């Protein structure tokens, strides 16, 4: 049931459309944090726990370096996991550096807010 008439209804429709576009855009612009890992990896498990408070600020993508299709990553990182890339760029390895992560996420968020 709608209680709006004339221009008010048009304003609601356009505002709702803008809201949906912003909601959709915000979901698609989240940065991707890639975790290069293997099973078992206690340091990776520890890292994922540390990242939980940040989970709404990025999409976590895990890459199992022991899978055949990831052999290049295995050769590169077999002695260094966990390794993290943010939007395809190396960010950190061995342990989570929360200040570095926060700094890079803030940069990306500020850049996104200007667009």
UniProtKB/TrEMBL annotation:
Keywords: Electron transport, Transport. Gene3D superfamilies: Glutaredoxin (3.40.30.10). InterPro entries: Glutaredoxin-like, Glutaredoxin-like_YDR286C, Thioredoxin-like_sf. Belongs to the glutaredoxin family. This is Glutaredoxin-like protein. It comes from Fukomys damarensis.
């Amino acid at each position: 049931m709608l209680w709006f008439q004339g221009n008010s209804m048009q304003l609601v429709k356009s505002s709702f459309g803008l809201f949906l576009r912003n909601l959709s855009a915000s979901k698609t612009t989240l940065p991707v944090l890639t975790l290069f890992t293997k099973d078992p990896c206690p340091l990776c498990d520890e890292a994922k726990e540390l990242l939980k408070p940040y989970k709404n600020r990025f999409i976590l993508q895990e890459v199992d370096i022991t899978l055949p299709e990831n052999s290049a990553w295995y050769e590169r990182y077999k002695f260094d996991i966990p390794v993290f890339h943010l939007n395809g760029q190396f960010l950190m390895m061995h342990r989570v550096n929360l200040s570095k992560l926060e700094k890079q996420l803030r940069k990306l968020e500020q850049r996104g807010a200007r667009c």
